[in-house]
Amino acid sequence: MPPHRWTDETRDATCYYDNVATAAAGGASDADDDDTEVDDERQALCEADVDGDRPLIRAGQTDHSGSSSCGLLQSRHIFGLMGFLGFAVVYAMRVNLSVAIVAMVNQTAIPHSNSSVLANDTCPMPPAPTPNGSFWQSLSTPAEGEFVWDEATQGLVLGSFFYGYVLTQVPGGRMAELVGGKRIYGYGVLITAIFTLLTPLAAHWNLPLLVLVRVLEGMGEGVTYPAMHAMLAHWIPPLERNKFAAVVYAGSNIGTVISMPLTGWLCSQRFLGGWPSAFYIFGLLGLVWFVCWMYLVYDRPSEHPRISRKERAYIERSLQHVQQLQQHQHHHHHQQVADEDVLEDEHDEPEPAAIQEDAIPWRSLLGSVPLWAILLTQCGQSWAFYTQLTELPTYMSNILHFDIQSNALLNAVPYLTAWFVGIACSALADWMLARRYISLLNSYKLWNSIASVVPSLGLIGIIYVGCDWVWVTFMLAGVGSFGGAVYAGNQMNHIALSPRYAGTMYGITNSAANICGFLAPYVIGLIINHRETLTQWHIVFWLAAGLNIAGNFIYLIFASADEQKWSLTQTQTETQTRTRTRARTSGATRPLRI
Protein backbone atom coordinates (compact mmCIF):
# COMPACT_ATOMS: atom_id res chain seq x y z
CA MET A 1 0.00 0.00 0.00
CA PRO A 2 1.22 3.52 -0.68
CA PRO A 3 2.20 5.57 2.35
CA HIS A 4 -0.24 8.36 1.59
CA ARG A 5 -3.68 8.65 0.04
CA TRP A 6 -3.28 11.61 -2.27
CA THR A 7 -6.58 12.37 -4.00
CA ASP A 8 -9.21 10.66 -6.06
CA GLU A 9 -9.88 13.95 -7.82
CA THR A 10 -7.05 13.41 -10.30
CA ARG A 11 -6.43 11.04 -13.18
CA ASP A 12 -3.03 10.19 -11.71
CA ALA A 13 -4.47 8.98 -8.43
CA THR A 14 -7.13 6.91 -10.20
CA CYS A 15 -4.50 5.18 -12.31
CA TYR A 16 -2.09 4.89 -9.40
CA TYR A 17 -4.54 3.16 -7.11
CA ASP A 18 -6.13 0.94 -9.72
CA ASN A 19 -3.20 -1.44 -9.40
CA VAL A 20 -3.52 -1.29 -5.64
CA ALA A 21 -7.22 -2.12 -5.86
CA THR A 22 -6.51 -5.13 -8.08
CA ALA A 23 -3.82 -6.40 -5.76
CA ALA A 24 -5.98 -5.95 -2.70
CA ALA A 25 -8.75 -7.98 -4.32
CA GLY A 26 -7.04 -11.12 -3.10
CA GLY A 27 -4.57 -11.82 -5.88
CA ALA A 28 -7.25 -13.05 -8.27
CA SER A 29 -5.49 -11.89 -11.40
CA ASP A 30 -5.39 -15.39 -12.91
CA ALA A 31 -9.10 -15.85 -12.50
CA ASP A 32 -9.78 -12.43 -13.94
CA ASP A 33 -7.73 -12.63 -17.12
CA ASP A 34 -10.87 -12.81 -19.21
CA ASP A 35 -12.42 -9.80 -17.52
CA THR A 36 -11.06 -6.99 -19.65
CA GLU A 37 -13.77 -4.38 -19.34
CA VAL A 38 -12.33 -2.66 -16.28
CA ASP A 39 -8.81 -2.85 -17.69
CA ASP A 40 -9.94 -1.24 -20.95
CA GLU A 41 -11.57 1.60 -19.07
CA ARG A 42 -8.50 2.08 -16.91
CA GLN A 43 -6.28 2.19 -19.99
CA ALA A 44 -8.52 4.80 -21.61
CA LEU A 45 -8.47 6.96 -18.51
CA CYS A 46 -4.73 6.67 -17.98
CA GLU A 47 -3.73 7.59 -21.56
CA ALA A 48 -3.39 11.22 -20.54
CA ASP A 49 -0.15 12.83 -19.41
CA VAL A 50 0.86 12.34 -15.79
CA ASP A 51 0.48 16.08 -15.21
CA GLY A 52 -3.14 15.79 -16.22
CA ASP A 53 -2.86 18.41 -18.97
CA ARG A 54 -3.80 16.26 -21.99
CA PRO A 55 -7.48 15.34 -22.30
CA LEU A 56 -8.66 11.93 -23.48
CA ILE A 57 -10.47 13.62 -26.34
CA ARG A 58 -7.56 14.38 -28.57
CA ALA A 59 -7.35 16.84 -31.43
CA GLY A 60 -8.45 15.55 -34.78
CA GLN A 61 -10.44 12.57 -33.52
CA THR A 62 -13.84 11.91 -35.01
CA ASP A 63 -16.52 9.61 -33.68
CA HIS A 64 -18.41 7.08 -35.76
CA SER A 65 -21.21 9.50 -36.44
CA GLY A 66 -18.82 11.81 -38.17
CA SER A 67 -18.94 14.63 -35.65
CA SER A 68 -15.57 15.99 -34.71
CA SER A 69 -14.55 16.02 -31.07
CA CYS A 70 -11.77 18.52 -31.54
CA GLY A 71 -13.94 21.65 -31.49
CA LEU A 72 -13.08 24.40 -29.11
CA LEU A 73 -16.57 24.28 -27.61
CA GLN A 74 -17.69 20.78 -26.70
CA SER A 75 -21.01 19.97 -25.10
CA ARG A 76 -19.79 20.29 -21.53
CA HIS A 77 -18.18 23.63 -22.39
CA ILE A 78 -21.47 24.93 -23.79
CA PHE A 79 -23.15 23.76 -20.59
CA GLY A 80 -20.52 25.62 -18.57
CA LEU A 81 -20.88 28.78 -20.66
CA MET A 82 -24.66 28.82 -20.26
CA GLY A 83 -24.30 28.16 -16.53
CA PHE A 84 -21.84 31.04 -16.31
CA LEU A 85 -24.23 33.39 -18.13
CA GLY A 86 -27.11 32.19 -15.97
CA PHE A 87 -25.33 33.12 -12.77
CA ALA A 88 -24.29 36.43 -14.31
CA VAL A 89 -27.93 37.25 -15.07
CA VAL A 90 -29.38 36.18 -11.72
CA TYR A 91 -26.71 38.05 -9.79
CA ALA A 92 -27.30 41.14 -11.89
CA MET A 93 -30.98 40.90 -10.94
CA ARG A 94 -30.07 40.30 -7.30
CA VAL A 95 -27.57 43.11 -6.69
CA ASN A 96 -29.06 45.94 -8.76
CA LEU A 97 -31.27 46.90 -5.83
CA SER A 98 -28.18 47.42 -3.64
CA VAL A 99 -27.15 50.26 -5.95
CA ALA A 100 -30.59 51.44 -6.99
CA ILE A 101 -31.71 51.91 -3.38
CA VAL A 102 -29.20 54.76 -3.07
CA ALA A 103 -31.16 56.60 -5.79
CA MET A 104 -34.55 55.42 -4.53
CA VAL A 105 -34.18 56.75 -0.95
CA ASN A 106 -34.34 60.41 0.06
CA GLN A 107 -31.42 60.51 2.50
CA THR A 108 -31.92 64.11 3.57
CA ALA A 109 -35.47 63.37 4.72
CA ILE A 110 -34.24 60.70 7.15
CA PRO A 111 -33.42 62.02 10.66
CA HIS A 112 -29.88 61.28 11.85
CA SER A 113 -28.64 61.48 15.42
CA ASN A 114 -25.04 62.51 14.66
CA SER A 115 -24.26 65.25 17.18
CA SER A 116 -21.44 67.76 17.40
CA VAL A 117 -19.64 65.38 19.75
CA LEU A 118 -19.34 62.95 16.86
CA ALA A 119 -18.33 65.54 14.28
CA ASN A 120 -14.77 64.19 14.11
CA ASP A 121 -16.12 60.67 13.58
CA THR A 122 -17.30 61.33 10.04
CA CYS A 123 -15.54 61.87 6.74
CA PRO A 124 -15.42 65.46 5.42
CA MET A 125 -17.61 66.35 2.49
CA PRO A 126 -15.62 66.64 -0.73
CA PRO A 127 -15.47 69.97 -2.56
CA ALA A 128 -18.02 70.60 -5.27
CA PRO A 129 -16.88 69.16 -8.60
CA THR A 130 -15.46 71.60 -11.14
CA PRO A 131 -16.08 71.40 -14.90
CA ASN A 132 -12.45 70.38 -15.44
CA GLY A 133 -12.36 67.85 -12.61
CA SER A 134 -11.60 64.22 -13.31
CA PHE A 135 -14.11 61.42 -12.93
CA TRP A 136 -12.67 60.36 -9.58
CA GLN A 137 -12.85 63.91 -8.28
CA SER A 138 -16.49 64.29 -9.28
CA LEU A 139 -17.90 63.28 -5.93
CA SER A 140 -21.14 64.81 -4.80
CA THR A 141 -24.09 64.24 -2.54
CA PRO A 142 -26.44 61.61 -4.02
CA ALA A 143 -29.57 62.85 -5.76
CA GLU A 144 -32.78 62.95 -3.77
CA GLY A 145 -34.91 59.81 -4.01
CA GLU A 146 -38.66 59.39 -3.75
CA PHE A 147 -38.86 56.96 -0.79
CA VAL A 148 -38.31 57.91 2.85
CA TRP A 149 -36.91 54.67 4.29
CA ASP A 150 -34.67 54.69 7.35
CA GLU A 151 -31.74 52.25 7.77
CA ALA A 152 -33.90 49.54 9.34
CA THR A 153 -36.45 49.72 6.51
CA GLN A 154 -33.69 49.67 3.90
CA GLY A 155 -32.26 46.59 5.62
CA LEU A 156 -35.69 44.94 5.43
CA VAL A 157 -35.99 45.70 1.72
CA LEU A 158 -32.46 44.49 0.94
CA GLY A 159 -32.80 41.39 3.10
CA SER A 160 -36.30 40.34 2.00
CA PHE A 161 -34.83 38.62 -1.05
CA PHE A 162 -33.09 36.12 1.19
CA TYR A 163 -36.23 35.13 3.08
CA GLY A 164 -37.35 33.44 -0.12
CA TYR A 165 -33.84 32.45 -1.16
CA VAL A 166 -33.27 30.17 1.82
CA LEU A 167 -36.66 28.45 1.50
CA THR A 168 -35.96 26.80 -1.85
CA GLN A 169 -32.34 25.71 -1.38
CA VAL A 170 -32.95 22.18 -0.10
CA PRO A 171 -36.07 21.50 -2.21
CA GLY A 172 -34.25 22.84 -5.27
CA GLY A 173 -31.27 20.56 -4.73
CA ARG A 174 -33.42 17.48 -4.19
CA MET A 175 -35.67 18.24 -7.16
CA ALA A 176 -32.57 18.62 -9.35
CA GLU A 177 -31.39 15.17 -8.23
CA LEU A 178 -34.78 13.60 -9.00
CA VAL A 179 -35.99 15.35 -12.18
CA GLY A 180 -32.76 16.90 -13.46
CA GLY A 181 -31.06 20.24 -12.94
CA LYS A 182 -31.85 21.66 -16.40
CA ARG A 183 -35.48 22.49 -15.69
CA ILE A 184 -34.92 23.46 -12.04
CA TYR A 185 -32.07 25.84 -12.87
CA GLY A 186 -33.85 27.24 -15.93
CA TYR A 187 -37.21 27.84 -14.27
CA GLY A 188 -35.45 29.37 -11.28
CA VAL A 189 -33.86 32.03 -13.49
CA LEU A 190 -37.17 32.55 -15.31
CA ILE A 191 -39.08 33.20 -12.07
CA THR A 192 -36.36 35.58 -10.91
CA ALA A 193 -36.59 37.52 -14.19
CA ILE A 194 -40.38 37.84 -14.03
CA PHE A 195 -40.41 39.28 -10.52
CA THR A 196 -37.46 41.55 -11.32
CA LEU A 197 -39.61 43.11 -14.04
CA LEU A 198 -42.38 43.64 -11.47
CA THR A 199 -40.11 45.29 -8.86
CA PRO A 200 -40.59 48.97 -9.92
CA LEU A 201 -44.38 48.53 -10.02
CA ALA A 202 -44.37 46.96 -6.55
CA ALA A 203 -42.12 49.70 -5.12
CA HIS A 204 -44.48 52.43 -6.31
CA TRP A 205 -47.51 50.53 -5.04
CA ASN A 206 -46.45 50.07 -1.41
CA LEU A 207 -43.65 48.72 0.77
CA PRO A 208 -45.27 45.36 1.75
CA LEU A 209 -45.83 44.47 -1.92
CA LEU A 210 -42.19 45.29 -2.71
CA VAL A 211 -41.04 43.01 0.11
CA LEU A 212 -43.32 40.22 -1.17
CA VAL A 213 -42.00 40.56 -4.73
CA ARG A 214 -38.41 40.39 -3.49
CA VAL A 215 -39.25 37.28 -1.41
CA LEU A 216 -40.74 35.56 -4.48
CA GLU A 217 -37.74 36.62 -6.56
CA GLY A 218 -35.48 35.04 -3.96
CA MET A 219 -37.48 31.81 -4.06
CA GLY A 220 -36.84 31.58 -7.79
CA GLU A 221 -33.12 32.20 -7.52
CA GLY A 222 -32.73 29.92 -4.50
CA VAL A 223 -32.76 26.76 -6.60
CA THR A 224 -29.96 27.83 -8.95
CA TYR A 225 -26.86 26.94 -6.94
CA PRO A 226 -28.05 23.51 -5.71
CA ALA A 227 -29.33 22.62 -9.19
CA MET A 228 -26.01 23.56 -10.79
CA HIS A 229 -24.12 21.55 -8.16
CA ALA A 230 -26.20 18.48 -9.02
CA MET A 231 -25.50 18.97 -12.73
CA LEU A 232 -21.75 19.39 -12.21
CA ALA A 233 -21.64 15.98 -10.54
CA HIS A 234 -22.99 14.41 -13.77
CA TRP A 235 -21.18 16.50 -16.38
CA ILE A 236 -17.68 17.35 -15.20
CA PRO A 237 -14.76 14.88 -14.93
CA PRO A 238 -13.08 15.10 -11.51
CA LEU A 239 -9.79 16.39 -12.88
CA GLU A 240 -11.58 19.41 -14.40
CA ARG A 241 -13.97 20.08 -11.54
CA ASN A 242 -12.17 22.87 -9.66
CA LYS A 243 -11.40 24.92 -12.76
CA PHE A 244 -14.81 24.30 -14.28
CA ALA A 245 -16.74 25.23 -11.14
CA ALA A 246 -14.62 28.36 -10.73
CA VAL A 247 -15.57 29.52 -14.21
CA VAL A 248 -19.27 28.65 -13.90
CA TYR A 249 -19.81 30.11 -10.43
CA ALA A 250 -17.68 33.13 -11.30
CA GLY A 251 -20.61 34.24 -13.42
CA SER A 252 -21.93 35.72 -10.19
CA ASN A 253 -18.86 37.95 -10.02
CA ILE A 254 -19.17 39.05 -13.64
CA GLY A 255 -22.88 39.71 -13.20
CA THR A 256 -22.08 41.91 -10.22
CA VAL A 257 -19.27 43.69 -12.08
CA ILE A 258 -21.60 44.51 -14.98
CA SER A 259 -24.73 45.18 -12.95
CA MET A 260 -23.36 47.61 -10.38
CA PRO A 261 -21.83 50.30 -12.66
CA LEU A 262 -24.56 49.86 -15.26
CA THR A 263 -27.25 50.25 -12.61
CA GLY A 264 -25.48 53.33 -11.27
CA TRP A 265 -25.38 54.86 -14.74
CA LEU A 266 -29.03 54.00 -15.46
CA CYS A 267 -30.11 55.53 -12.15
CA SER A 268 -28.49 58.82 -13.18
CA GLN A 269 -30.37 58.92 -16.48
CA ARG A 270 -33.99 59.71 -17.30
CA PHE A 271 -34.47 56.64 -19.48
CA LEU A 272 -37.61 54.77 -18.32
CA GLY A 273 -37.68 56.85 -15.16
CA GLY A 274 -34.07 56.31 -14.06
CA TRP A 275 -33.70 53.52 -11.50
CA PRO A 276 -36.65 51.40 -12.80
CA SER A 277 -34.78 50.87 -16.08
CA ALA A 278 -32.19 48.73 -14.28
CA PHE A 279 -34.88 46.21 -13.35
CA TYR A 280 -36.50 46.20 -16.80
CA ILE A 281 -33.25 45.63 -18.70
CA PHE A 282 -31.88 42.83 -16.52
CA GLY A 283 -35.29 41.16 -16.32
CA LEU A 284 -35.51 41.02 -20.13
CA LEU A 285 -31.99 39.56 -20.30
CA GLY A 286 -33.16 36.80 -17.99
CA LEU A 287 -36.01 35.91 -20.35
CA VAL A 288 -33.67 35.73 -23.36
CA TRP A 289 -31.21 33.54 -21.44
CA PHE A 290 -33.99 31.11 -20.45
CA VAL A 291 -34.88 30.39 -24.09
CA CYS A 292 -31.23 29.65 -24.97
CA TRP A 293 -30.71 27.46 -21.90
CA MET A 294 -33.70 25.22 -22.59
CA TYR A 295 -32.49 24.57 -26.15
CA LEU A 296 -28.75 24.08 -25.57
CA VAL A 297 -28.43 22.24 -22.24
CA TYR A 298 -29.38 18.73 -21.06
CA ASP A 299 -29.34 17.03 -17.66
CA ARG A 300 -26.76 14.33 -18.45
CA PRO A 301 -24.33 13.53 -21.26
CA SER A 302 -26.38 10.41 -22.09
CA GLU A 303 -29.43 12.61 -22.83
CA HIS A 304 -27.65 15.13 -25.06
CA PRO A 305 -28.51 14.52 -28.73
CA ARG A 306 -25.54 16.48 -30.12
CA ILE A 307 -22.70 15.34 -27.86
CA SER A 308 -19.85 13.45 -29.55
CA ARG A 309 -19.31 9.84 -28.61
CA LYS A 310 -15.73 10.54 -27.59
CA GLU A 311 -16.72 13.28 -25.17
CA ARG A 312 -19.53 11.23 -23.67
CA ALA A 313 -17.22 8.25 -23.19
CA TYR A 314 -14.57 10.46 -21.59
CA ILE A 315 -17.00 11.99 -19.08
CA GLU A 316 -18.72 8.73 -18.14
CA ARG A 317 -15.51 6.72 -17.82
CA SER A 318 -13.84 9.40 -15.70
CA LEU A 319 -16.76 9.50 -13.28
CA GLN A 320 -17.02 5.70 -13.23
CA HIS A 321 -13.36 5.21 -12.37
CA VAL A 322 -13.56 7.59 -9.41
CA GLN A 323 -16.70 5.83 -8.19
CA GLN A 324 -15.01 2.44 -8.45
CA LEU A 325 -11.95 3.73 -6.61
CA GLN A 326 -14.10 5.05 -3.76
CA GLN A 327 -15.95 1.75 -3.53
CA HIS A 328 -12.68 -0.16 -3.29
CA GLN A 329 -11.29 2.09 -0.57
CA HIS A 330 -14.46 1.68 1.45
CA HIS A 331 -14.53 -2.12 0.96
CA HIS A 332 -10.83 -2.71 1.52
CA HIS A 333 -11.12 -3.39 5.23
CA HIS A 334 -14.26 -5.51 4.75
CA GLN A 335 -13.08 -7.73 1.91
CA GLN A 336 -13.42 -10.92 3.89
CA VAL A 337 -17.04 -10.14 4.64
CA ALA A 338 -17.65 -9.41 0.97
CA ASP A 339 -16.14 -12.80 0.04
CA GLU A 340 -18.52 -14.56 2.39
CA ASP A 341 -21.47 -12.66 0.95
CA VAL A 342 -20.67 -14.05 -2.48
CA LEU A 343 -21.21 -17.58 -1.14
CA GLU A 344 -24.62 -16.86 0.39
CA ASP A 345 -27.48 -18.94 -0.94
CA GLU A 346 -29.80 -17.60 -3.61
CA HIS A 347 -32.68 -17.12 -1.19
CA ASP A 348 -31.18 -14.02 0.40
CA GLU A 349 -33.65 -11.24 1.05
CA PRO A 350 -33.17 -8.11 -1.10
CA GLU A 351 -31.37 -5.40 0.81
CA PRO A 352 -33.36 -2.32 1.84
CA ALA A 353 -30.97 0.06 0.11
CA ALA A 354 -31.64 -1.59 -3.24
CA ILE A 355 -35.35 -1.01 -2.78
CA GLN A 356 -35.20 2.50 -1.46
CA GLU A 357 -32.93 3.77 -4.17
CA ASP A 358 -33.86 7.42 -3.93
CA ALA A 359 -34.35 7.69 -0.17
CA ILE A 360 -32.15 10.35 1.44
CA PRO A 361 -30.42 9.24 4.68
CA TRP A 362 -31.52 12.38 6.49
CA ARG A 363 -30.41 11.24 9.94
CA SER A 364 -26.88 10.41 8.77
CA LEU A 365 -26.70 13.45 6.53
CA LEU A 366 -27.75 15.95 9.19
CA GLY A 367 -25.45 14.26 11.70
CA SER A 368 -22.42 14.50 9.39
CA VAL A 369 -19.72 16.53 11.14
CA PRO A 370 -17.87 17.39 7.88
CA LEU A 371 -21.13 18.74 6.44
CA TRP A 372 -21.60 20.94 9.51
CA ALA A 373 -18.03 22.18 9.07
CA ILE A 374 -18.87 23.27 5.52
CA LEU A 375 -22.09 24.89 6.73
CA LEU A 376 -20.41 26.97 9.42
CA THR A 377 -17.57 28.23 7.26
CA GLN A 378 -20.06 29.15 4.54
CA CYS A 379 -22.07 31.10 7.12
CA GLY A 380 -18.99 33.11 8.09
CA GLN A 381 -18.06 33.75 4.47
CA SER A 382 -21.64 34.70 3.58
CA TRP A 383 -21.88 37.23 6.40
CA ALA A 384 -18.75 38.98 5.15
CA PHE A 385 -19.89 38.70 1.53
CA TYR A 386 -23.35 40.15 2.13
CA THR A 387 -21.97 42.89 4.32
CA GLN A 388 -19.96 43.98 1.31
CA LEU A 389 -22.66 43.27 -1.27
CA THR A 390 -25.68 44.91 0.34
CA GLU A 391 -24.24 47.51 2.71
CA LEU A 392 -21.02 48.78 1.16
CA PRO A 393 -22.82 51.00 -1.40
CA THR A 394 -24.52 52.72 1.54
CA TYR A 395 -21.15 53.10 3.29
CA MET A 396 -19.61 54.58 0.15
CA SER A 397 -22.50 57.02 -0.20
CA ASN A 398 -23.14 58.11 3.39
CA ILE A 399 -19.60 57.91 4.82
CA LEU A 400 -17.21 58.46 1.89
CA HIS A 401 -19.75 60.65 0.04
CA PHE A 402 -19.43 59.09 -3.41
CA ASP A 403 -21.98 59.92 -6.09
CA ILE A 404 -23.99 56.99 -7.36
CA GLN A 405 -21.94 56.34 -10.53
CA SER A 406 -18.56 56.43 -8.73
CA ASN A 407 -20.09 54.42 -5.91
CA ALA A 408 -21.33 51.67 -8.24
CA LEU A 409 -18.07 51.47 -10.20
CA LEU A 410 -15.86 51.17 -7.14
CA ASN A 411 -18.14 48.55 -5.60
CA ALA A 412 -17.93 46.47 -8.78
CA VAL A 413 -14.12 46.35 -8.95
CA PRO A 414 -13.70 43.82 -6.07
CA TYR A 415 -15.91 41.29 -7.86
CA LEU A 416 -13.87 41.58 -11.04
CA THR A 417 -10.59 40.98 -9.22
CA ALA A 418 -12.19 38.14 -7.21
CA TRP A 419 -13.17 36.50 -10.50
CA PHE A 420 -9.60 36.53 -11.81
CA VAL A 421 -8.17 35.33 -8.51
CA GLY A 422 -10.81 32.60 -8.24
CA ILE A 423 -9.95 31.14 -11.65
CA ALA A 424 -6.20 31.39 -10.97
CA CYS A 425 -6.49 29.72 -7.56
CA SER A 426 -8.69 26.93 -8.92
CA ALA A 427 -6.29 26.23 -11.78
CA LEU A 428 -3.39 26.18 -9.34
CA ALA A 429 -5.33 23.87 -7.02
CA ASP A 430 -5.99 21.38 -9.85
CA TRP A 431 -2.35 21.53 -10.91
CA MET A 432 -1.13 20.83 -7.37
CA LEU A 433 -3.54 17.92 -7.06
CA ALA A 434 -2.53 16.48 -10.42
CA ARG A 435 1.15 16.67 -9.47
CA ARG A 436 0.33 15.15 -6.06
CA TYR A 437 1.89 18.02 -4.17
CA ILE A 438 -1.06 18.12 -1.79
CA SER A 439 -3.90 15.87 -0.71
CA LEU A 440 -7.50 16.72 -1.56
CA LEU A 441 -8.39 17.45 2.07
CA ASN A 442 -5.41 19.74 2.61
CA SER A 443 -6.20 21.47 -0.67
CA TYR A 444 -9.72 22.22 0.53
CA LYS A 445 -8.39 23.55 3.83
CA LEU A 446 -5.64 25.64 2.25
CA TRP A 447 -7.84 27.46 -0.24
CA ASN A 448 -10.72 27.85 2.17
CA SER A 449 -8.36 29.51 4.65
CA ILE A 450 -7.13 31.89 1.95
CA ALA A 451 -10.73 32.68 0.96
CA SER A 452 -11.72 33.40 4.58
CA VAL A 453 -8.75 34.95 6.34
CA VAL A 454 -7.30 37.22 3.66
CA PRO A 455 -10.56 39.07 2.80
CA SER A 456 -11.24 39.41 6.53
CA LEU A 457 -7.94 41.22 6.88
CA GLY A 458 -9.13 43.50 4.08
CA LEU A 459 -12.28 44.39 6.04
CA ILE A 460 -10.18 45.12 9.11
CA GLY A 461 -7.88 47.21 6.93
CA ILE A 462 -10.83 49.43 5.95
CA ILE A 463 -11.10 50.40 9.61
CA TYR A 464 -7.54 51.69 9.75
CA VAL A 465 -7.43 53.52 6.41
CA GLY A 466 -10.37 55.71 7.42
CA CYS A 467 -11.61 58.11 4.76
CA ASP A 468 -8.91 57.40 2.17
CA TRP A 469 -10.97 55.97 -0.68
CA VAL A 470 -7.87 54.80 -2.57
CA TRP A 471 -6.84 52.52 0.30
CA VAL A 472 -10.43 51.45 0.86
CA THR A 473 -10.58 50.34 -2.77
CA PHE A 474 -7.27 48.50 -2.39
CA MET A 475 -8.49 46.65 0.69
CA LEU A 476 -11.66 45.56 -1.11
CA ALA A 477 -10.37 44.93 -4.63
CA GLY A 478 -6.83 43.81 -3.79
CA VAL A 479 -6.88 42.02 -0.46
CA GLY A 480 -10.55 41.11 -0.71
CA SER A 481 -10.11 39.51 -4.13
CA PHE A 482 -8.76 36.33 -2.51
CA GLY A 483 -12.31 35.49 -1.56
CA GLY A 484 -12.46 33.97 -5.05
CA ALA A 485 -10.32 31.08 -3.77
CA VAL A 486 -13.46 29.64 -2.18
CA TYR A 487 -14.22 27.72 -5.39
CA ALA A 488 -11.19 25.53 -4.70
CA GLY A 489 -12.12 25.42 -1.00
CA ASN A 490 -15.40 24.26 0.49
CA GLN A 491 -17.50 24.78 -2.65
CA MET A 492 -16.49 21.41 -4.16
CA ASN A 493 -16.36 19.59 -0.82
CA HIS A 494 -19.99 18.47 -1.08
CA ILE A 495 -19.27 16.36 -4.15
CA ALA A 496 -16.33 14.70 -2.39
CA LEU A 497 -18.50 13.82 0.62
CA SER A 498 -21.37 12.46 -1.48
CA PRO A 499 -21.67 12.76 -5.26
CA ARG A 500 -25.07 11.11 -4.94
CA TYR A 501 -26.56 13.79 -2.68
CA ALA A 502 -24.39 16.76 -3.67
CA GLY A 503 -27.37 18.90 -4.69
CA THR A 504 -29.27 18.28 -1.45
CA MET A 505 -26.18 18.88 0.66
CA TYR A 506 -25.37 22.11 -1.13
CA GLY A 507 -28.96 23.18 -0.63
CA ILE A 508 -28.64 22.62 3.12
CA THR A 509 -25.39 24.52 3.54
CA ASN A 510 -26.27 27.31 1.11
CA SER A 511 -29.66 27.75 2.74
CA ALA A 512 -28.08 28.17 6.16
CA ALA A 513 -25.38 30.45 4.79
CA ASN A 514 -27.86 32.71 3.04
CA ILE A 515 -29.81 33.28 6.21
CA CYS A 516 -27.01 35.78 6.67
CA GLY A 517 -28.39 37.51 3.58
CA PHE A 518 -31.25 38.95 5.63
CA LEU A 519 -29.65 38.76 9.07
CA ALA A 520 -26.62 40.86 8.06
CA PRO A 521 -28.60 43.86 6.69
CA TYR A 522 -30.97 43.69 9.68
CA VAL A 523 -28.18 43.56 12.27
CA ILE A 524 -26.23 46.27 10.47
CA GLY A 525 -29.33 48.44 10.46
CA LEU A 526 -29.58 48.01 14.23
CA ILE A 527 -25.90 48.83 14.70
CA ILE A 528 -26.06 52.00 12.58
CA ASN A 529 -29.50 53.08 13.86
CA HIS A 530 -29.42 56.65 12.43
CA ARG A 531 -25.74 57.04 13.44
CA GLU A 532 -23.77 57.25 10.20
CA THR A 533 -20.31 57.42 11.81
CA LEU A 534 -16.99 55.68 11.30
CA THR A 535 -17.20 54.14 14.77
CA GLN A 536 -20.51 52.40 14.05
CA TRP A 537 -19.30 51.11 10.69
CA HIS A 538 -16.10 49.81 12.30
CA ILE A 539 -18.27 47.57 14.46
CA VAL A 540 -19.87 46.26 11.27
CA PHE A 541 -16.50 45.39 9.70
CA TRP A 542 -15.08 43.80 12.87
CA LEU A 543 -18.16 41.60 13.18
CA ALA A 544 -17.94 40.40 9.57
CA ALA A 545 -14.21 39.63 9.81
CA GLY A 546 -14.57 37.81 13.12
CA LEU A 547 -17.38 35.53 11.94
CA ASN A 548 -15.49 34.70 8.74
CA ILE A 549 -12.29 33.71 10.52
CA ALA A 550 -14.16 31.73 13.20
CA GLY A 551 -16.02 29.70 10.57
CA ASN A 552 -12.77 28.82 8.83
CA PHE A 553 -11.21 27.70 12.12
CA ILE A 554 -14.04 25.19 12.61
CA TYR A 555 -13.63 23.97 9.02
CA LEU A 556 -9.92 23.33 9.56
CA ILE A 557 -10.71 21.05 12.50
CA PHE A 558 -13.64 19.01 11.20
CA ALA A 559 -13.47 19.01 7.37
CA SER A 560 -13.18 15.76 5.42
CA ALA A 561 -12.63 14.81 1.77
CA ASP A 562 -13.70 11.15 2.02
CA GLU A 563 -17.00 9.97 0.63
CA GLN A 564 -19.21 9.21 3.62
CA LYS A 565 -20.42 5.69 4.42
CA TRP A 566 -24.08 6.67 4.15
CA SER A 567 -23.38 7.88 0.61
CA LEU A 568 -21.75 4.59 -0.38
CA THR A 569 -24.49 2.31 0.98
CA GLN A 570 -26.56 2.13 -2.20
CA THR A 571 -23.51 1.69 -4.42
CA GLN A 572 -22.26 -1.15 -2.24
CA THR A 573 -25.59 -2.93 -2.46
CA GLU A 574 -25.78 -2.69 -6.24
CA THR A 575 -22.20 -3.92 -6.61
CA GLN A 576 -22.70 -6.83 -4.22
CA THR A 577 -25.95 -7.84 -5.94
CA ARG A 578 -24.27 -7.96 -9.34
CA THR A 579 -21.42 -9.98 -7.85
CA ARG A 580 -23.78 -12.56 -6.33
CA THR A 581 -25.60 -12.93 -9.65
CA ARG A 582 -22.36 -13.57 -11.54
CA ALA A 583 -21.15 -16.00 -8.86
CA ARG A 584 -24.32 -18.08 -8.94
CA THR A 585 -24.33 -18.20 -12.72
CA SER A 586 -20.70 -19.22 -13.15
CA GLY A 587 -20.12 -21.00 -9.87
CA ALA A 588 -17.19 -18.71 -9.19
CA THR A 589 -16.13 -17.85 -5.67
CA ARG A 590 -13.65 -15.14 -6.50
CA PRO A 591 -13.68 -11.98 -4.37
CA LEU A 592 -15.33 -8.77 -5.47
CA ARG A 593 -13.31 -6.99 -8.14
CA ILE A 594 -13.24 -3.19 -8.24
UniProtKB/TrEMBL annotation:
CDD domains: MFS_SLC17. Residues 49-69, 569-594 are annotated as: Disordered. Gene3D superfamilies: MFS general substrate transporter like domains. Keywords: Membrane, Transmembrane, Transmembrane helix. The keyword DNA damage does not apply. Pfam families: MFS_1 (PF07690). This is Inorganic phosphate cotransporter. The lineage of its organism: Eukaryota, Metazoa, Ecdysozoa, Arthropoda, Hexapoda.
